[in-house]
Structure formats: structure tokens, C-alpha cells
Design a protein that fits this description.
Distance between the termini: 41 Å
Subcellular location: Cell inner membrane; Cell membrane
Shape: globular
Organism: Jatrophihabitans telluris
Number of helices: 9
Largest sheet: none
Family: Belongs to the peptidase A24 family.
Helix content: over 70%
Structural class: mainly alpha
Protein name: Prepilin leader peptidase/N-methyltransferase
Keywords: Cell inner membrane, Cell membrane, Hydrolase, Membrane, Methyltransferase, Multifunctional enzyme, Protease, Transferase, Transmembrane, Transmembrane helix
Strand content: under 5%
Amino acid sequence: MPVVIVAVALLGLAIGSFLNVVIYRLPAGKSLSRPSSHCPVCGNPIRNRHNLPVIGWLILRGRCADCRSRISIRYPLVELTTGVLFVLVALRLNQLSLLSVLPAWLCFAAIAIALTMIDVDVHRLPDAIVLPSYPVLALLLTLGAVTHDTPWALLRMLIGGLALWLSYLLLHLAYPAGMGWGDVKLAGIVGAMLGYLSYSSLLVGAFAAFFLGSLVSVPLLVSSRASRKSRIPFGPFMLAGAFLALWLARPIADAYLHLINVT
């Protein structure tokens, strides 16, 4: 397992570096491959030795090697966050004896980071990321189910994806200003990922999204830093709720069952 963790951490750092490109270029409609990484101020390409995740930023001390303009600390933070999240996911799936779906959850983690940052920046969940995620994650989960011999997990995946998608669709139809169409499309992915794990994961993840959202939005409304008409991106809370459920769904379900038995 230590070898797997190191490999997953390095993979996360590398993917985090690519996610920085996706987060910056995709909303702007720019190519993800051309031109190569360059300074947005002077336009000079970034040298290979400076393009190493996290380390490159530290070597440069957060400044361009040519024009000395500042490089946002956000870049190494995205890389580091991706690496840490990859490791945490691997550790949790190992505890659950579900390493067969590690590729699916690592892919979902990368998608979650990209969508979270883009939604915060431009209040959009791009179809270019969301829609291809459906077949990719479905394929990876199916391979995991076949490997682990858990066909019923695929049925839960379908039920979970459809249930959460329909729930968000109804919320969108009832209050379009409060629930965007992008959130509806993302709900199917979140529901499928959590449904594959268990129905308790699905329920905890669905509830956690609104709970986390209220923890942020209510204080903003009370302090008048936001109004009822303010657009607060909900996608990040949906994704955060999914990963919270990955770690806490089973303990919460066990605590609830214990409470029922006691009462």
C-alpha cells in the first residue's frame, strides 16, 4: 500500500498541474494544448524545470523567471490539493476494500477540483467536463464492479444517478433562479458515484450538499454580504458533500441505527 500511496500522490500532483491549465483556459474557450504553458504577462514559455508541480513555483519564489511578475499561489495550491485528495481517496477506499474503483474515484476527484474552481470563477459547470464524465465514470465503475464481483453496485449506481438527477431537476423547475441547469447535470454524476458505494452514502451526500451550502450562504445573507438575488455557486457544495459522504456515510449510518436501537 505505501507504494500505491506514493504513486497516487505523484499522479495527483501531475494531474493538478494539468487542471490549472483546464481551469484557466476552458472557460475562456482556449485550446488546452496550444500554446504551451507560458507567462500571461510577458508571454515567454515556462521552462521544463520550472513546470514541476509545486516545486517549480517554490524555485521561482512565485515569480516569472523572465519578467518577474507574480505567479498566483493558487497554482501550487491546486496541485497540492489534488495530490492530497488523491491520497485521501486511496486510503479511504482501501479501508472500505474498494480499491477496484480507485481509478473512478481519482477521475471524479480531478473532475471535482476543476469544476469547483471554474464554478467559483465564472459560475458555470462546463458541459465539456460534465457530459463526458458520464460515460468515463460509468465505464470505470463497471470495470471496478466486474473486478470486485459486485454487480448489484451497478444497479445502485443507476438508481443513485437517476434519483439525484430527478431531485435536482424538480428543484430547478420549481425555482430556476436557485438551482441552475448545470447543477442538475452534475447531480447525475454525484448520485451515480455515491449510489455505487451505498444508499446511505447517497443520502448523506445529498443532505451534506445543502448543509454545507447553508453554512456558507446563511452567514453571507445575515451579514448583508450577499442578498437573495446573489449567485452563489452550488456545484462546489455538491462535490464537497460527495467526498464528505465517502468518509462519513458509514459512521453516520451506524450512529443513526444505534440511536434507533437505543430509543
